[in-house]
From TrEMBL:
It holds the Pfam family Exo5. InterPro entries: EXOV, PDDEXK-like_dom_sf. This is Exonuclease V. It comes from Denticeps clupeoides. Residues 36-57 are annotated as: Disordered. GO terms for cellular component: nucleus. One of its GO terms (molecular function) is single-stranded DNA 5'-3' DNA exonuclease activity. One of its GO terms (biological process) is interstrand cross-link repair. Belongs to the EXO5 family.
Length: 383
């Protein structure tokens, strides 16, 4: 497993995502200060999906909001949020699988975390989150050797991911287990990426896609959490199947992520690629090799999706959950989430029957959704 260390001026990691949904959401590109002007902040920023046409009442409402909220710096940020879609406002070239899973838990919570990055950072610095991350890294290093590579550009950074994909596909073809497999692709018009926790073969030789979840309690989580975790492996499956079926193109990657196909690879990346037998001098050529390699692979789509829960303290297994996969239903669900990011609707908080989620929410004291929708909700049975 190659692991890059970075000397770039631009530290944005466009592939950022790891498999533990708690740890992994503390990514640099998620906590960037959002752009507060209407102009794009990056010269090579990928144009985002368009906002739906506005009606006259919507325009009038926006004008009124601007008048009311333009008196303080904090409120000016809210004005900007209303003047572009969330992908543009938060300068997102892509969405991560873990972010979409957080969104399925509570959309308003995701937005609060993006608008208040220091709060989000504090939330993610909890000991149990760090412990979960350490367990994942330890497990990844059980099957992969870590090789540091110096990257000098964003293209180098992504080239390292491409090399990891090629290396891990070869390992899968030999019937062995891989961990932290990078997945990516365009889903419903938006570039989505993540890292599959584990791909391995069962006793019948069928490929199993698994996600490890660590828990403080020695018990299987409640259905709402299993549903969120299930979405994670279902999205990984959709992305992985797209990659091995050849439906990802070079321009999907370069256009959506704002990368230059003609950029020469840095020396360290180049040397590592050659050591792997990959002949490519530019980022674009390397992508072509990777995509061809994926399309020619004999690896079949996973036969099973599995969630594995284990105890954080002891490492003891708690239990497993098998997750069904139905592509049309998943795509319909995904369209619902993406409608927020492409500006087709406002963010929604939890429904009243899920108000119990607010009890452990970092943002409950200031959450306007909670105040407006169930101000007197104090205790609700968790389903
Ligand atoms: S308090 Fe409730 S509605 Fe508000 S962000 Fe938290 S979970 Fe969502």
């Amino acid at each position: 497993m190659v692991r890059r260390f970075c000397v770039m001026g631009d530290s944005e990691d466009v592939w950022s995502d790891i498999s533990d949904s708690e740890f992994l959401s503390i990514q640099l590109d998620e906590i960037d200060e959002p752009c507060v002007s209407g102009a794009q902040s990056h010269g090579n920023e990928e144009p985002c999906a368009g906002r739906s046409p506005e009606t006259s009442p919507q325009k009038a409402a926006r004008a009124a909001l601007k008048q009311i909220w333009s008196r303080s710096p904090l409120k000016r940020r809210r004005v900007s949020l209303y003047s572009m879609n969330p992908l543009e406002y938060f300068r997102r070239r892509h969405l991560s699988v873990t972010l979409l899973c957080e969104q399925s838990w509570c959309e308003v919570k995701v937005v609060c975390g993006l608008l208040r990055p220091l709060d989000k950072k504090a939330e993610m610095a909890r000991p149990e989150v760090k412990m979960g991350a350490e367990i994942h890294l330890k497990k990844a290093l059980e099957v992969h050797e870590e090789v540091p590579i110096l990257v000098l550009s964003r293209e180098d950074d992504e080239a390292v991911r491409a090399l990891n994909v090629m290396q891990k596909i070869v390992t899968l073809e030999t019937g062995m287990c891989v961990r932290e497999f990078p997945v990516f692709g365009v889903l419903e018009g938006v570039f989505v990426m993540g890292f599959i926790d584990e791909l391995s073969y069962d006793e019948r030789g069928q490929l199993v896609l698994s996600e490890l979840k660590t828990r403080r309690q020695m018990s299987i989580p409640r259905p709402a959490q299993i549903k969120r975790d299930g979405l994670q492996v279902r999205l990984y499956m959709l992305l992985f199947n797209g990659m091995i079926s050849g439906s990802v193109s070079k321009s999907d990657i370069t256009d959506h992520l704002g990368l230059q196909a003609g950029r020469a690879l840095g020396t360290d990346v180049l040397n590592h690629a050659r050591a792997m037998g990959v002949q490519a001098d530019t980022f674009g050529t390397l992508l072509e090799v990777m995509l061809r390699r994926l399309a020619l692979s004999n690896v079949r789509p996973p036969a099973h999706l599995r969630l594995q829960y284990c105890h954080q303290g002891s490492g003891d297994p708690i239990g497993t959950e098998d997750v069904p996969f139905e592509e049309p239903a998943l795509r319909a669900e995904l369209q619902g989430y993406l409608a927020y990011w492409t500006g087709n609707r406002e963010a929604r908080g939890v429904d009243i029957e899920d108000a119990w989620k607010c009890q452990s929410c970092h943002y409950q004291a200031s959450c306007e959704w909670k105040k407006n929708n169930f101000p007197t909700a104090h205790s609700h049975e968790k389903p």
